[in-house]
Design goal:
The protein has 340 residues and is an alpha+beta fold. It has helices spanning 2-8, 52-55, 79-93, 114-126, 137-144, 185-200, 206-216, 247-270, 274-283, 297-305, 318-328, 330-333, and strands at 12-16, 20-25, 29-35, 38-41, 46-50, 65-68, 71-72, 75-76, 103-108, 131-136, 155-160, 165-171, 174-181, 202-203, 227-234, 240-246, 285-288, 309-311, 338-339. It has 3 domains: 2-139 and 318-339, Nucleotidyltransferase, domain 5 (2-Layer Sandwich), CATH 3.30.420; 147-183 and 254-315, ATPase, nucleotide binding domain (Nucleotidyltransferase, domain 5); 185-253, Alpha-Beta Complex (Actin, Chain A, domain 4), CATH 3.90.640. It has 12 helices and 19 strands. A hairpin with a 3-residue loop joins β2 (20-25) and β3. α5 packs across α11 and α6 packs across α7 (206-216). The protein starts with a helix and ends with a strand. 46% of the residues are buried.
């Protein structure tokens, strides 16, 4: 009977990202991956859509409907909307008519404040969780990537998400040195928007900027330069206009946020104990998160630091897989790497 009840109680791991939420259910794996976007009627505060459906509305809604990202820079900026969103996603992944409240582990940036930490826990509890635990994203990413974090050797993980970049040196199951900066994928999108505004007097939306980054964005020169046709609004005439962007100009625009990330990695290495720094030089730097997929970023970091860089398997899912692995053996980890 106890085993039967245990199987019904599905614990959940959540990568609560600024751009996307990824949900891992115990014994099932990743079951949900959707944008962290909610559409509401601003007059009635009624929720219109969540996730994929809401993202399609970004920049395309009538005046009374607004598409909101309730997290910014990796932390909650709108508690009520975040709670509703988390509740909706938890309900989607649990068995229908389930009367069991799940235990939930949520990945959070290592640099969040105690107030922000408390807000995430409270949102999870209000969303219907029995217990909520937090794990720092670089630790979860390292576990999800399969790094041997409990060994007495140093591992450097760089998790580039939508709102934050987490850089951490991990050894013997703990974080030795860590840096969290609010420069990541969203900042890259912003500089593309500013590039189009400054150089072409054209306004594009965040969805268009993200698409440009994915299609032709790079941190390192490509053997073959590419172009993409972009539609925007002329800021002078106010009329729609089509223009062309090239790989080289977007690479130049992205240099500022990329250099900030590289400088953070260098600063982390400077503060790393010599023995662990020697381990990292031998084992390399591991990139996770959506930002790891930017073309040539691994090569750029390698050239700037002199350390070999590896992109982990499925970097978009590392944090979620990490929360899932920790959930499998929660009692072992609860006092070591998890915050309540």
């Amino acid at each position: 009977m106890l085993n039967f009840l245990k199987n019904l109680n599905k614990d959940i791991g959540i990568d609560l990202g600024t751009a996307n939420i990824v949900v891992y259910v115990k014994d099932k794996g990743i079951v949900l991956r959707e944008p962290t976007v909610v559409a509401i009627d601003k007059n009635t505060r009624q929720f219109m859509a969540i996730g994929n459906e809401a993202k399609l509305m970004v920049g395309r809604t009538p005046g009374n409907i607004i598409a909101i990202r309730p997290l910014r820079d990796g932390v909650i900026v709108d508690f009520d909307i975040s709670e509703h969103m988390i509740r909706s996603f938890i309900k989607r992944v649990l068995p229908k008519n389930s009367f069991f409240k799940p235990r939930v582990i949520i990945g959070v940036p290592s640099g969040i404040t105690n107030v922000e930490r408390r807000a995430v826990i409270e949102a999870g509890l209000q969303a219907g969780s029995k217990e909520v635990y937090l794990i720092e994203e670089p630790m979860a990413a390292a576990i999800g990537a399969g790094l041997p974090i409990n060994e007495p050797t140093g591992h450097l993980i760089v998790d580039i998400g939508g709102g934050t970049t987490e850089v951490a040196v991990i050894s013997m199951g703990g974080i030795v040195v860590s840096k969290s900066i609010r420069v990541a994928g969203d900042e890259m999108d912003d500089v593309i928007v500013n590039h189009c505004r400054t150089n072409y007097n054209l306004l594009i939306g965040e969805r268009t900027a993200e698409a440009i980054k994915i299609q032709i964005g790079s941190a390192y020169p490509k053997t073959e330069e590419k172009e993409v046709e972009v539609k925007g609004r002329d800021l002078i005439s106010g009329l729609p206009k089509t223009f062309t962007l090239t790989t080289s100009e977007i690479r130049h625009a992205l240099l500022e946020p990329i250099n900030t990330i590289v400088q953070t990695i260098k600063l982390t290495l400077e503060q790393t104990p010599p023995e662990l720094a020697s381990d990292i030089l031998q084992k390399g730097i591991f990139l996770t998160g959506g930002g790891a997929l930017l073309f040539g970023l691994d090569k750029f970091i390698e050239d700037e630091t002199g350390v070999k860089v590896f992109i982990v398997d499925d970097p978009l899912s590392s944090v979620a897989y990490g929360t899932g692995k920790v959930m499998q053996d929660l009692n072992t980890h609860i006092n070591k790497i998890i915050f309540k």
